[in-house]
Write a structure and sequence with these properties.
The protein is built from no helices and 28 strands. The chain is mostly beta strands. The strands form eight sheets. Strands 5, 7, 11, 12, 13 and 16 form a six-stranded antiparallel β-sheet that branches. Strands 6-18-17-8-15-14 form a six-stranded mixed β-sheet, with no helix packed on it. Strands 19-20-28-22-23 form a five-stranded antiparallel β-sheet, with no helix packed on it.
Length: about 300
C-alpha cells in the first residue's frame, strides 16, 4: 500500500493561495514470491528458482520486467561487490495460469533481466530459471546465498520484490579418482592402484555415513597389500575380495574422509576449497586365472 498527497495552488493579482491537502492510497494488487527447488547448494549443483506472481486486481499487468540480482553481495572490505551465481542460458520457462507460454526475452544475464511478463487479472504467472554457483559462492558451515527478484514496469507504482535464501550443504560431498602404476606391466607383473577420495563438504565423512568402496579388477589381482591412509587393511575385517571375479568391497564404515577447509580472498572475493583427502592403495600381481589361496578368500561368517 502506498500513500500519496496532493495540494493545488491558485495565483491571482500577485497573491497565492493553497488548497487543502488530499490524501489517498494505492492498494497493491500484484504480489511476488520466490523459492528455490532445493534449500541447499554445493559447488557443483545447479539451482532452479521459481518466481510466482499473483494479480488480485481486475486489470491485467502487461510488459512487466523481472530482475534477479543473482545473490550480489559486498565483500567485508565494504567496497568490492561480487555475484555468486551464474544464470544458465536458455533455462527460462514461463507459465500463465498454468499454461506454458513462449519464452520471454532475456535482455541481460547479470543481473538477470526477463522482460515482457504478463499477469492476467485474477490470475498468476510463474517464471522458472536455473543458476549455477561460481567461485564467489560462499562455502562453509554458515555460508548462504540470498538473492532478490524485483518486478517493475507494467503500470506498477513501486517495484514488487521477493527473495530467497539457500544455505551451503553441510553434508559430505565426495569424489573419487583412480590411478595405476605402472601403466605398462608384464604378464604376472605387479601393479598398484591408488584411489584418491576427496571431500568438498564442510562435514567429515565418518564411519556412520557408511561409505562403501567397490571395484572389480580386470584382469584379476592376486592382492598382496591394501592400505588406507597408510594403515594396512585386513581381508575379511576391513574388506572382502573375490579371486573368482576380482570384486573388491570395503566393509561398512571403513571409508572415512575429513571435511574440506575454505578460505576467501579478501580482495577478489574468490573462495578456495581445500578438500579433505583419504587414499586407498591396493597392490597385487596380475593373474590370468583365479587364485584360491586362503589369504585371498573372504573370511567365513
Amino acid at each position: 500500500m502506498a500513500v500519496f498527497y496532493n495540494q493545488a495552488t491558485l495565483s491571482y493579482n500577485g497573491n497565492v493561495t493553497g488548497s487543502n491537502i488530499t490524501t489517498g492510497e494505492i492498494v497493491a494488487t500484484l504480489s511476488a514470491d520466490k523459492n528455490a527447488v532445493s534449500d541447499t547448494y554445493t559447488g557443483m549443483g545447479d539451482i532452479t528458482y521459481a518466481v510466482s506472481l499473483v494479480n488480485s486486481g481486475s486489470t491485467d499487468f502487461t510488459g512487466l520486467t523481472v530482475t534477479d540480482d543473482l545473490g550480489r553481495y559486498t565483500l567485508p572490505n565494504g567496497v568490492t561487490e561480487v555475484v555468486p551465481l551464474n544464470y544458465i542460458a536458455d533455462t527460462v520457462n514461463y507459465y500463465v495460469n498454468g499454461v506454458k507460454q513462449a519464452d520471454p526475452e532475456v535482455s541481460a544475464e547479470e543481473p538477470l533481466t526477463i522482460e515482457g511478463i504478463r499477469v492476467p487479472a485474477g490470475g498468476n504467472a510463474l517464471i522458472l530459471y536455473t543458476a549455477r554457483p561460481n567461485q564467489f559462492a560462499p562455502v562453509g558451515a554458515d555460508a548462504a546465498i540470498t538473492n532478490r527478484a524485483s518486478v517493475s514496469g507494467g503500470g506498477l507504482v513501486n517495484p514488487v520484490t521477493a527473495e530467497e535464501t539457500i544455505t551451503h550443504s553441510t553434508e559430505p560431498n565426495l569424489t573419487i579418482s583412480k590411478s595405476l602404476d605402472p601403466l605398462v606391466v608384464s604378464e604376472n607383473g605387479t601393479v598398484t592402484y591408488t584411489f584418491t577420495i576427496q571431500n568438498y563438504g564442510s562435514t567429515a565423512a565418518e564411519s556412520g555415513d557408511n561409505a562403501v568402496f567397490r571395484d572389480t579388477f580386470d584382469p584379476i589381482l592376486n592382492i598382496s597389500s591394501v592400505t588406507f591412509n597408510g594403515t594396512p587393511w585386513v581381508n575379511g575385517t576391513d574388506y572382502t575380495y573375490s579371486t573368482a571375479n576380482g570384486e573388491f568391497t570395503s566393509q561398512d564404515g571403513r571409508i572415512t574422509v575429513p571435511a574440506a577447509t575454505y578460505s576467501q580472498d579478501e580482495t577478489t572475493g574468490v573462495w578456495a576449497i581445500q578438500p579433505g583427502t583419504s587414499t586407498l592403495v591396493i597392490t597385487g600381481a596380475i593373474s590370468s586365472a583365479a587364485n584360491t589361496s586362503p589369504a585371498d578368500t573372504p573370511a567365513a561368517n
